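TICKET: design request
STATUS: open
ATTACHED STRUCTURE:
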């Protein structure tokens, strides 16, 4: 049976652990795609019960970070064998 997408599904999130540069604590953030938009979610230090637990923001490329994969090299018409 082929995979059938649930029409109510908006996306998926993955839990990622990281070390906070300021405190050195190990924290968890969520990353993924919601409605075709790449997002990242961070936990918030709740001070009141009516505050949200996570803050969701649009994901942006890291400046000065390492790339997960090298950029593909463009292929020219001269390189195609047919």
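STATUS: resolved
RESOLUTION: sequence designed for all positions
ATTACHED SEQUENCE:
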């Amino acid at each position: 049976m082929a995979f059938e997408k649930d029409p109510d599904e908006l996306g998926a999130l993955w839990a990622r652990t990281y070390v906070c540069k300021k405190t050195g604590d190990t924290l968890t953030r969520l990353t993924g795609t919601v409605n075709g938009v790449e997002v990242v979610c961070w936990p918030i230090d709740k001070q009141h019960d009516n505050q949200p637990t996570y803050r969701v923001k649009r994901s942006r490329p890291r400046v000065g970070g390492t790339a997960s994969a090298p950029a593909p090299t463009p292929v020219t018409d001269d390189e195609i064998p047919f």
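CLOSING REMARK: The mean pLDDT is 80. The CA atoms of residues 61 and 67 lie 9 Å apart.
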